[in-house]
Structures are given as structure tokens and as C-alpha cells.
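We treat protein structure as text, and this decision shapes the records that our systems exchange. The remainder of this section carries one protein's record, kept here as part of the documentation:
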Amino acid sequence: MGRVAELAGVSVRTLHHYDAIRLVRPSARTAAGYRAYSAEDMERLREVLAYRRLGFGLREIAELVGDPSADAVAHLRRLRGLLLEQRDRADAMVASIDRELDARAEGRKVAPEEQLEMLGARLYDAIGGAYPATRCTEPRIAAQIWDALGDARTVLNVGAGTGSYEPADRDVTAVEPSAVMRGQRPAGSAPCVAAAAESLPFEDCSFDIAMAVSTVHHWRDPIAGLREMRRVARRVVVLTFDTDEPGWQDRFWLTRDYLPEFTAVLAGFPSLAGMADAIGARAEPVPIPWDCADGLFEAYWRRPGAYLEDRVRRAMSVWTRVGPDAERRAVRSLGDDLASGRWAERNSDLADLDAADLGLRLLIA
């Protein structure tokens, strides 16, 4: 027991307590009659300590590790999803702290309510909660995605978020690592599993098709996630972004003229060709309608004033990624150009367009 305590970084007293409450009980004995841990005991201890360090209480942990439907792989996948969620919360907190530091540097008072929202339990809820306000299904984009699904009956939606673009006439299972997003899925929506794209908790070929909509850029390892989709489904459909074309940053006036930092946001993003090769897919353009109902980053290409609204920007992850300084500068410059008429003069060719190709691509395998 002493050796196990040393390896695990806990006290012998802690291990005695786990034994006493039947959480982790050594099932073997040494030749001298001392309690010893089998390989299975060590695996269970690893799970208990991992959940403990994520903040779970012992009663909750006992229920989790005692789940008869979960094996070691299922526990590892669950732990991985929780760790990714914890990382996202930490990233969101850093972004909020940066905003408060900027406010204080400018001499602006930060109300106690704002401080609590920035650093308290509601932080991630507030950031994730911005999505339902402007992010919803755009019927014309949905029609293109659903057409690509073909005759598939069972559909896995990976990185499902709040459920936009899930077809109502199919048997859908959703996967979403964020508890905030899962909590905002509407009543009656498809069942949702807490897991990450890179480690899907399903057998090979469990679904007719796996889909992923505007989510690949959030994954830690996009290629691994795409290969997992290919493993668990016979076919794959992915809505993503093309950075292969030379000068792709200049397709959209917002990144060209106001937010050059966007290039760095996608610096490590795989090429469209690489993603297509990973799943054996072909790519087709997805035009964005001028009145797009889904408030994705490029949605307001003919409605530039929308980017001046904080509620619109908060539902776009790009702004968090580029940081508050770049965001303030871009918004200020855009506001000036709209007021002076420079934006309209520079982008007069957009006025008569009903849809624009701004790099969205549908990968179909």
C-alpha cells in the first residue's frame, strides 16, 4: 500500500479511507499477509483519483466507477471529455480576465456583478449561452447538407452543439463535449453523448453516416476526429473551411480589411485537401445567403453593421481567439468606415449579390 501511495501521489491514510468506504479495496495479499493491489485495483484507483482531481465528491465517484455499463475505455473517454471541457472553461476565463484587465487599464470601472460573471460559475454559461441568440439552422445550407446525407437513416452528429442542422426525419445521435452546449439543446432533440470527436465511444460502422457542422476547427486534432467519424460510420459529411486557395484571407472583407489576425487563428488548421484525403471525400462549395439565418462568422457579409453588435460577436469563437485588442480595433475601424461611407464604396460589388462563396466547403465521403 505504501508503494501504491507513493506512485499515486496520495497518502497511505487516503488509501485506507478508500478501502474503508469500499471505493478501492485491495483484492490481493502479499506472502507476508499485507494488502496488495491487483492490476484491476490500480485501474480503478486511477479512475477514482482522476475524477477526484476534477472536483467530484466521493459519493459521485463511487457511482461513476461503479457503473456496470462502462468499461475502462469508456471511463477514459469520459475523463478525456471532462478534461477538454475544463480546458475550454479555463480558456474562457483567461479571455474574460483579459477583458477586465483592459477595462481597468483604460480607467473604466468594473461593476461587482461583472466581476462575478467574469470569474464566477456563470462564466462559461454566459459565453456558451450566446450561441442560441444568433446561431440557428439556415434552411438553404441545411438543404445542401441534408441532400448530402442521401438515404442514410442513422446519423451521428459530431460536435453537435445545440442541435442546429440535425435532420428531423432521421434517427440521430449527437456527440458534444461541452455540458453548457448539451444543456441548451431543445426538449425533444436527439439524445446527446458527452464525448470528443477524437475518441468516439461507438463500435466500427455503427451509423449510416456521421456529420459535423462548423465544428472541426474547435477540435484538438481535426484529422484524428475525421478518421474517427470514418471509423464509426459508413459515410461522412463535414461542413468546414477552405484555407488551400492562395489569398484565401482576402475572400472576406472583414478578414482582409479589419481582422488580419484571423490568419493566425487558422494557422495550424489542416488543409482542405488533407481533410478530404483523411476520409476520402470530395468537396463542394457552400454559398452563404446574404440574409443567412445562422450567425456564423461570415454570415453578415452584406450586413456589416451586425459586426458592431456585441451579442452577434459573442456567438463567434473567432473574436475570443484573436483577443480583445484586435476585436476593439476591428470594430472601431469598421464603425468608422461605415459612418464615412468608405465601406460601401470599397464593397459596392456586394450590393447585388444574393449569395457569396467565402470559403465554406462541404466534404462528402
User: Anything to note?
Assistant: The longest strand covers residues 233-241.
